[in-house]
Every structure is written in structure tokens, then in C-alpha cells.
């Protein structure tokens, strides 16, 4: 697939591509459609429009769907091993979408079940399981995201494989929103 060179040296995705169709299949509700960058546009110079969404502020914008390099560390689940780099599909967001994000945040990564989510792209590019684990610590400490089938070992006083010590939370699919994660709730307790 060929594409024109976009801002910052990123290659944009053509409107007529199948990737553009996949991208626009699940546009967030309430996001106004941009003129010209829709799937199926026959203009050979048409760049596919993406609709980045800020879930904290509930706002969306639009920008070119682009291909850009991503770098991370491969891991055995416990230790970083070596750097890996690969291309992913994403979009730059208008500056206004970043305003309600935590200080220092550069953007938002989609973690859904959909084909262009970060876990789906990592699994496809690196041939790992389509699974991920997040550690979101309190107190301003740095968190971590681990993609692949595990093990998921956090470095602490007593390192343990989280996949073995944490209870599993079975996820349920919702045909009305196939990209989202749902789980059954039997009850909610407070102050216990």
C-alpha cells in the first residue's frame, strides 16, 4: 500500500484502503464527520480521517490516520530483554483533546478488542498473544503495560506472576459494542 507523507514524516492512510474502512467502523458517538477523509473517497490524494477521543473529557477531534514507528522493550514477563520497533496505525490528536489528561500525558492508546487497538496491533506485528496487563500505581509512580501472553511479574519485595495470584475476571462480549470490555457484577459493597 502506498500513501503520501503526512506531518512529522508519518505516512497517511489512503481513504480508499481497507484500513480506513476498519478505522471508521467504530467512530465515537457524537464525533462530527470531517469533510473529505471518509472511506471510499476515490481521490488518490485523500488521507483517511481518524477521530481521536478523550474519554476523560468526552471530547473528540479529527486528524489524519497515519503510520508511525513505536519502540518498546521485549520482556520475558519479568525482565526487559531487548528493544523492539515496529510500525503502528494511529492518529495525532488536536492539542485541545489533551487538556483534561494527567500532566505529562502525550495521548491516549486504545486498548479495546477492535483490530486497530494497541493490543491487536502488537499481537499482529510481534506474533504474541492478544492479551495485556496494566499496572497503574498510585502516588505518581510510573506504571507499565505488558502485551502478550505473560507471565506478568511485577518487581517488588516478593515478585509474583500476577496471572497466577490475581483472580481471573471473565470478560463478556456485548454485540452492541464488540470492542468494549464488560464483566458481570453480582453486587457492590461499600465501607467493608
UniProtKB/TrEMBL annotation:
GO molecular function ontology, one term from the record: aspartic-type endopeptidase activity
A GO BP annotation: proteolysis
InterPro entries linked to this entry: Aspartic_peptidase_A1, Peptidase_aspartic_dom_sf, TAXi_N
Xylanase inhibitor N-terminal domain segment(s): 10-149
UniProt family annotation: Belongs to the peptidase A1 family.
Protein name: Xylanase inhibitor N-terminal domain-containing protein
Organism this protein belongs to: Eragrostis curvula
Amino acid at each position: 500500500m502506498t500513501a503520501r507523507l503526512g506531518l512529522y514524516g508519518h505516512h497517511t492512510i489512503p481513504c480508499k484502503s481497507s484500513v480506513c474502512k476498519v478505522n471508521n467502523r467504530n467512530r465515537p458517538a457524537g464525533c462530527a464527520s470531517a469533510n473529505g477523509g471518509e472511506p471510499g473517497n476515490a481521490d488518490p490524494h485523500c488521507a483517511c480521517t481518524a477521530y481521536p477521543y478523550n474519554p476523560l473529557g468526552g471530547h473528540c477531534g479529527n486528524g489524519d490516520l497515519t503510520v508511525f514507528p513505536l519502540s518498546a522493550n521485549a520482556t520475558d514477563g519479568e525482565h526487559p530483554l531487548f528493544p523492539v520497533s515496529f510500525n503502528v496505525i494511529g492518529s495525532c490528536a488536536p492539542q485541545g483533546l489533551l487538556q483534561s489528561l494527567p500532566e505529562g500525558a502525550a495521548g491516549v492508546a486504545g486498548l479495546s478488542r477492535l483490530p486497530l487497538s494497541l493490543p491487536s496491533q502488537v499481537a499482529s506485528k510481534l506474533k504474541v498473544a492478544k492479551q495485556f496487563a496494566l499496572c497503574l500505581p498510585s502516588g505518581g509512580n510510573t506504571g507499565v503495560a505488558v502485551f502478550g501472553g505473560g507471565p506478568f511479574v511485577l518487581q517488588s519485595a516478593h515478585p509474583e506472576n500476577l496471572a497466577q495470584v490475581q483472580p481471573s475476571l471473565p470478560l463478556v462480549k456485548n454485540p452492541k459494542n464488540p470492542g468494549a470490555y464488560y464483566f458481570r457484577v453480582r453486587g457492590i459493597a461499600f465501607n467493608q
